Amino acid sequence: MSKVVLTQVADGVRTIALNRPEILNAMNGELVVALGDAFAEANADPGTRAVVFCGHGRAFCAGADLRERGEAISPDTAQRNAESIQRVTREMVFGDKVIVGAIHGWAVGGGFEWAIGCDLPLWGAGARAFFPEVEWGLFVTGGATAILPAIVGPVKAKEMMLLGGKYTAQELLALGVAWRVVADDALLNEAHAVAAQIAALPERSVRAMKSVLNKSTYADVETALELETQAAAAGSADPETQARVRNFKT
After folding, report:
1. Tens digits of per-residue pLDDT, 121-156?
2. Out of 4, 199, 205, 222, which residue is the most buried by the measure of CB atoms under 10 Å away?
3. CA distance 84 to 89
4. Active-site annotation holds for 133
5. How many other C-beta atoms are found inside a 10 Å radius of the C-beta of residue 236?
6. Which among 71, 133, 159, 203 is annotated as catalytic?
7. Between the CA of residue 132 and those of 19, 63, 219, what are the distances in Å?
8. Fold classification of 5-249 (topology level)
9. Burial classification of residue 41, based on how many CB atoms lie within 10 Å of its CB (0-12 exposed, 13-18 middle, 19 or more buried)
10. Could you give the C-alpha distances from 62 to 41, 104, 250, in angstroms and in order?
């Protein structure tokens, strides 16, 4: 059992927690694979009626752990890395279980993508988020190129992804990215209360409602995932990107 993603089930609510707190739950290969496994297990478990998705420590997820990237990434490796990330999104968006997000601290890059993939994203009042990918020569994943425009509109999505501005929880609430903003010290309790409310509803109706809403609202997610994978793989293997990552690590 992986220690970088922790799960616990009680009264029909499964908590899935990112657990690399010493580096703000930054994403590496092990964490991404473990998270995909955790959501797959949740979706297959009849005893799980709702999911709370959170991060341990001072942040939800600080994005890619650039320190762990190799000096050179082959196109094949970059492709596999992108596909592993996209698997998480498929489990989150197309899986049966409603996901209540509990986002605190920083949600950066892939962490921001996971936040917008939640069905009911609660944000702590002190949370912040941004997309740094373009600055690094990388590309967003997680179906964000379909999900974010559906939430905020295509022009605002371009601003957020191209310019990499940092957004507060209140700004994200105004944009519709956050469902609700609550005090940081009440975030997890509130997320579990909402998940318990979902868990008490008829399972078939909940499953059908999520499926139909996501498939109709995010009709282009599957196409976006395929195109993002190609773009992310090409970006990761690009020499200019690798030079930017080396400069970051030094």
Report:
1. 999 999 999 999 999 888 999 999 999 999 999 999
2. 199
3. 9
4. yes
5. 24
6. 133
7. 22, 9, 26
8. 2-enoyl-CoA Hydratase; Chain A, domain 1 (3.90.226)
9. middle
10. 24, 11, 18
